[in-house]
Amino acid sequence: QEKSCRLSAALLGEDCEISHDQLYELLKYAALGKCHNAAQPSWCRIYHRSHLAGVVVVVLHGVSQVHFYRFYLQFKHLRKVFRHRFTFTPSANFLTSLYGEGPDLRPQNTAPGLTSTSSECVTKSSDLQCDPIIRRYGEQKRGLTSYTLTLEEQKKNNYPIKGSPGCKDYISTECDQQRTDSSPLFGLDCEMCLTAKGNEVTRVSLVDAQGQCLLNELVKPESPVMNYHTRFSGITKKMLLPVKTRLSDVQTRLKKMLPHDAVLVGHSLNSDLQALEMIHPSVIDTSLLFARDAGRRFKLKFLAKAVLGKEIQCEQKLGHDPTEDARAALELAQFFIEQGPAKVAELNLEMLLTAEKLAEVSQNKVALQPQGCGVQKQLNEPPRLYKPCFLDCLQVTGQKPLLLGRQGLESSSLCQSNLSTSNKQILQRALEDVPLSTFSIVQFSLGPEYIASHLHAGLYEKVRSKLTDMLTIYAGPFEEGFCLKSVKKEFGRCGPIQSLTVVTETFQPYIRVQYEVLEAAQLAVESLNGAEVAGSCIQVQRPVTAAMLDCDVLIKELELDVENEGVLYVAGLKKSLTEMDLQEEFSHLKDLKMLFLPKDLQSGKHRNCCFLKFRNSQSAVDALEAINGWTVKGRELRSRNALASGHLWRWIWQMNHSNGKQGKHIFYEQMEQLSDCEQELRKKMKKLDHRIKKLYRSLQNNTLCVVLFPGANSIHGSQPGLGLMGIKNDAGRSAC
């Protein structure tokens, strides 16, 4: 009997965000097996890979995760077939970042029309707006005061602030004079060792605006050293033996050295100031200055090489040189101020970093061409790089990938390209050619009139608003002077509460509860409507709006979604319980495969709920009957089928904490325009779903199919991409 391939991926909660590198890793292994340094992906597993009949990647250009949930009911096939889903950050050069597009990542001059590549947009002025640096600072040059961190930014990034908890005994530099664009810059860097007290300073360096070293001092920690971290700090026990200088001595010297309008520059400077136990009001942090999406940061070593053309933190040296690091951070800030955000964005740092990482993965390291103030010519002439490409590896093994769609790859010689003008033509060619190819890339597209950035932002705002309403319930009426604490406790047993407020506009008081998870709101409606709470028989309902008229249908379809099959939501847990505690509590449940305990993605604190994933649906049904009414550590549990256990859970959490920032750029006229085209979009999404269904049915068994919504970057905000994947089996559904 022929073995069936199977795909396994632990994509619950916060584990659902996948990088482009991880996606590349999966496709490379699926296409090549263990040839050409390909390895089993770290985040998922393909069983019996040698029996894989082929790989099909479907790319829906102009579509993001927002489209999937705005038109969720239209995507009948996708949500019923693909069990594994993940989210990823969008990329301007989507095909480039995904497939490793051959020897030259620099955009080429191509004739206009259907064959132009997706990488064209890198150098166009209009698309610079997508760069996080431009979104943050604009394109115009500014003075240095525009790049110093505000008080709120310092608080957010854990800088020591006067009067804040934990900074009571910190020393102020007393540099309290008003800053101007002529204020002097000073580079600062420290090296730390681990002591019984924590990380303590063992070396301090300060350089002036000309790069001259003003201070390079070893410091004796107050507490015994537990780990010198010599590999990074360069500090050894022998070096510190004769040292007499203490932290208080360095604090005094720095106060004397710094003028009253000094601006300190460093890379993640908050760590240095915390270790120095000093407060300074005006700082430029180069790890934040060279902005990236999703809270990521470039390393100082990479920035020094890519921007300044300087090698620092070399492996041959013992540890980091703080004077070298301080000078590098200072020069990076000076470069940014002198050249302006537009020039920095044109360096395409994200592309350079991706190329460097993938070059290392394939053991084909590339030296980054130095750019920046030392080589002015390079500012207008991005370097030619080699990005490892598994498409050429396929060609070596005698396989030539099939590329269908409107966009071509620059490395077109590596593919059998057939560029068509319409989605209908693309589907017809795919039905004929894909079954004959072992690796296929099929691209469908929305028309250009449907991919404007304000339309993306408008759809996001509608999805955010609807999810907020679905997370919200109104309950009452209550008696005057009712006990709010007991009411909050009762509703909290359904799941984590985002906010609870009393509604006073009514004759008798009601409450408005916004939950953090969809299951909690649904559980409150199901279990507390008609119940007696705080001495009152109450009604529980969601808000009544035009957008919520299909809420019950949506809830039912989410429950039936294949991603939630065999997954239960359990609420009423003590927040002190760990995953290990819960594994023990639920260990006797039959066929329990996985447990996910949600936590606040900022504080890391656990929520009072969890998700249980079972190996089959029947085991989940049996467990649901058993769990309801259970008592764990004195708490009675409530449970129901999951609605958003996977990547949607993470997205909802991010929406809850975004304060609707992306929606405030949308004007009334644009929302009217969105309403006009939304009905047409519904039809287009339904057609896309139908076309993918026809293509999927034509595939051989044991074919890996990956459907990608690439997402979008715009001045209105970043819309994440969405991936769906599975291996087709005899039943037509993706094997897992």
TrEMBL record:
Boundaries of every RRM domain copy: 471-545, 566-644
Database matches in PROSITE patterns: RRM
InterPro entries with a match to the protein in the record: Nucleotide-bd_a/b_plait_sf, RBD_domain_sf, REX1-like_exo, REXO1/3/4-like, Ribonucl_H, RNaseH-like_sf, RNaseH_sf, RRM_dom
Statement: the UniProt record of this protein carries the keyword ATP-binding: no
GO MF annotations, alphabetized: exonuclease activity; RNA binding
CDD domains for the chain: REX1_like
Coiled-coil features, chain-numbered ranges: 671-698
One GO cellular component term: nucleus
Pfam family, one: RNase_T
Keywords: Coiled coil, Exonuclease, Hydrolase, Nuclease, RNA-binding
Protein name according to UniProt: REXO5 exonuclease
Organism: Campylorhamphus procurvoides
